[in-house]
Structure formats: C-alpha cells, structure tokens
Amino acid sequence: MNPDALRGHMDALLLSVLEAEPLHGYAIIEALQERSGGALSVPTGTVYPALRRLERTGHLASEWATVGGRKRRTYRLTESGRRQLEGERSAWRDFTTAIGSVLRPRPGDARAETGPLRS
Amino acid sequence: MNPDALRGHMDALLLSVLEAEPLHGYAIIEALQERSGGALSVPTGTVYPALRRLERTGHLASEWATVGGRKRRTYRLTESGRRQLEGERSAWRDFTTAIGSVLRPRPGDARAETGPLRS
DNA sequence: CCCGTTGTGTAGACACCCTACATGTAGGCT
DNA sequence: AGCCTACATGTAGGGTGTCTACACAACGGG
C-alpha cells in the first residue's frame, strides 16, 4: 500500500475502529489490519501521533489503564468524534465517486480493441 | 475536497484522462473537472509539476504545438504509461476495498439503536 | 539470559500538493 | 487605448501528514 494514499484518510480509519468500542493504540493497529484483511499495516509512528492529534482536536478522549503490568492509553470517541466520523464517511463517498468517475475506463480507450468494429 | 486526500492518486488521474487521447495541461485540468462532475479542481501548481514528473519517469511523452498563437505542450501516454495506468487502477481497487472495509459501519455501532433489541 | 510480544512514544526525513506569483497571447468591451 | 477575461505554462516556497528508525519498558517462554 502506497504510503501517500493514506494521506487524509487516517483520521477516518481511526475514528471508525473506535466507533464500536474504546481501544488502545496497539489494539487499534491490530484492528486495522484485521478489518482490512491484512492490507493495512500502519506503523506506530503514524498511529500514535494521529491519535494525539485527534485528542487535541476533541474528537477523541483517553484514559490510562494498567492491564497485566502493561500501561495502556485507551481512546474513545467523543460526541464530536462521532459527528466527525459521519463527515469522514460522507467525504469518503464523495472522494471515491470523484476519483472513480475519472479512473473508470471509457469504451474505446483500450489500446487493443476486442471487437471487430471494422467499417 | 480535502487536498491531502488527493495525495498519491494524482498520477492515476492524469494517466487516466490521457488514455483516450493526448491533451495539454490546461485541457487536462478541464477534463478532470468535467469528468468528476466539478468535484475536482486541481490547481496548475499541482498538475504541471506532476506531468513533468510522469514524463521524467517515462510514463508520458510530450510535444510542443502552436494553436491559434498559443503554445501548448501536449502529453500522451507511453506504453509504460499504459501499463502504469493498469497498475494504478488495480491499486485503486485494492485501496478502496481496504479503506472501505474499515470504514463500513458495523451492525450495532450506531449510538442510537433503531430497533428494540431488548431482552 | 535472551528474545519475541505487547505497548507507548519521539525525532527527523521525505514526498507531494497547495498557494502565490511570474509571464505571455488572444479577443471582447468600453 | 486601456482593461479584463480566458487561455496557457511554469517556478518557488510552504505546509503537513506519513514513514523510518530509534528508545524505553514489562511480561513470559525457551
């Protein structure tokens, strides 16, 4: 997966995996991989700063917890975050529609015509 | 359209509008707007450098032409560009599939349940 | 005792898109 | 004549979000 392609969609992904239940960073990364069928391998250096960014903008809130001697910072969606997620979803639809309509091959564009089409 | 969302998809867009016929930069920008139903307003400062990048990597070739006193640099797909376009299309499918499967709302995620579901 | 897994985090590099500007021709309007 | 819009190409510099690489730390198994 081209790293640049993720640009601007990270927030949507994070908000989406947190919609059902609060999770900590490490679990979020695993959830992204699992939900995408292994296609998404987001490094920690991307996720942790993004989570802090989303907390700073009020879309997430976090609490510390200790489980089995390990310290976790668990993030959950705020009300603002839920609204943001809806916006991201609609933006995603618009985005894919726009790009898709440009990318979709037009009839006659193929360099090797399949049909006869002669005269 | 969030500028960051376009990141990494510009090449695919340019290659795609050039698939059917060679075009010059200005016409490419108009074609992108038209094909996307007005959703894509890509500034010249994005398109011209991107076209040169694609020419440098061998996916495009260009010739100068003069039409009505105006000088145009007309770009066309190379064979390498056509192969690249196929790759970009398949990458786009993978990308939307991966993001889509994460973004798709799960049953039970809604904060306000519509059904009763009690007991 | 080392190593893999779990877990959080920062620093710096890099890539690419954007804003803003520079330059020039053609044609219409006043 | 002067001005404005459309057409047409291009560069410089800024911003910002993702990545690579690293640091730290606790746990459990071999």
Automatic annotation (TrEMBL), chains A, B:
SUPFAM superfamilies xref list: Winged helix' DNA-binding domain
| Matching InterPro entries | Metal_resp_DNA-bind_regulator, Tscrpt_reg_PadR_N, WH-like_DNA-bd_sf, WH_DNA-bd_sf
Q: List residues of the Transcription regulator PadR N-terminal domain.
A: 14-86
- Signal sequence span is none
What is the superkingdom listed in this entry's lineage? Bacteria
Concerning Gene3D superfamilies, the annotation shows:
Winged helix-like DNA-binding domain superfamily/Winged helix DNA-binding domain
Q: Which PANTHER family match?
A: PADR-FAMILY TRANSCRIPTIONAL REGULATOR, TRANSCRIPTIONAL REGULATOR RV3488
Q: Which protein is depicted?
A: Helix-turn-helix transcriptional regulator
At the highest ranks, the source species' classification is: Bacteria, Bacillati, Actinomycetota, Actinomycetes, Streptosporangiales
